[in-house]
Write a structure and sequence with these properties.
This protein is mainly alpha-helical and about 290 residues long. The protein has 12 helices and no strands.
Length: about 290
């Protein structure tokens, strides 16, 4: 009986916002609701772009070359007469896919490094954190460029390169949380009650360390999108006529004076997504405090 009481956690993870609290947050933070809706629109359009456009991403019309934005073509047309709005929406699939791959790599590798370093400590912590410090010393875009040059061009190599570049942030955040939770009274009580380190890790440390990592994942989704678009802009993404966001912005850079919408509107589309993710991350961070 005593062991059971000692093993029970004295401090639980912060509960998820209740329905009433979430409604209050949405009422008091209308920008948060707008950001959520915009991100939801991007995700839906990535999987079902035909819901929002009747044009194909590679359908050309020689009679509709470089038309400005209108009701027929929301983002205008490019130099081949292709509907730019359709290409932006169809390009969501490639960019979102690359972002998910990059975040998956970063979360798995970062969590593993952070948990091992924070949980075992000593020389293991020192060695792993020095490796992470080396990665942090290299600019993220430069590291991604080096990796994608070695792997080759395409959406998946770009995603892998960006994922490796954001691993250090997840590793350091996870390590800090594990070190914090390890010293809390209920962890010491669980150990005193006879619980194994594996049980303590899975039942107490990991559930109570996940909050900041989840917030960082939302924030780094925006970072990954910018990095992926940057590499695509430089020509490392999918080959034409694939409609990646960075490629679309690059295609219109030579026509900024005569056809400003070719680069500006896709760029604003991406910028609003990144700002929305940043706002969501900031709001979630405030709610979990």
């Amino acid at each position: 009986m005593t062991a059971t009481l000692l093993e029970a956690p004295l401090v639980e993870a912060a509960p998820a916002p209740s329905g009433g609290r979430l409604t209050s947050v949405l009422v008091r933070r209308p920008l948060f609701l707008v950001a959520l809706l915009y991100v939801a629109f991007i995700v839906v359009s990535a999987f079902w772009p035909s819901l929002f456009t009747s044009y194909g991403p590679i359908d050309t019309d020689p009679g509709a070359v470089t038309l400005p934005p209108s009701l027929d073509h929301f983002f205008g047309t490019d130099i081949y007469g292709r509907d730019l709005w359709s290409r932006v929406l169809h390009g969501s699939a490639l960019t979102i896919q690359a972002t998910l791959i990059a975040l998956g790599i970063a979360v798995v590798a970062g969590l593993t490094l952070g948990i091992v370093a924070g949980f075992f400590g000593s020389y293991t912590d020192s060695i792993l954190m020095r490796f992470v410090d080396v990665l942090l010393a290299i600019p993220g875009l430069l590291l991604a460029l080096s990796i994608v040059t070695a792997l080759g061009y395409g959406t998946v190599p770009v995603a892998v390169a960006v994922g490796v570049g954001i691993v250090p942030g997840f590793a350091r955040t996870t390590r800090a949380e594990v070190l914090r939770v390890k010293t809390l009274p209920y962890v010491e009580a669980a150990r005193a009650g006879g619980a194994s380190w594996t049980r303590v890790l899975l039942r107490h440390i990991l559930p109570n360390s996940w909050g900041p990592v989840a917030v960082l994942a939302v924030l780094d989704a925006g970072v990954a999108i910018i990095a992926i678009a940057s590499l695509s802009f430089l020509g490392f993404g999918a080959a034409p006529p694939a409609a990646e966001w960075g490629t679309l912005i690059a295609d219109g850079r030579n026509y900024l004076i005569t056809s400003w919408w070719l680069s500006l509107l896709p760029g604003l589309f991406v910028a609003l997504l990144v700002l929305s993710l940043n706002h969501i991350s900031k709001t979630l961070q405030e709610l979990t405090r």
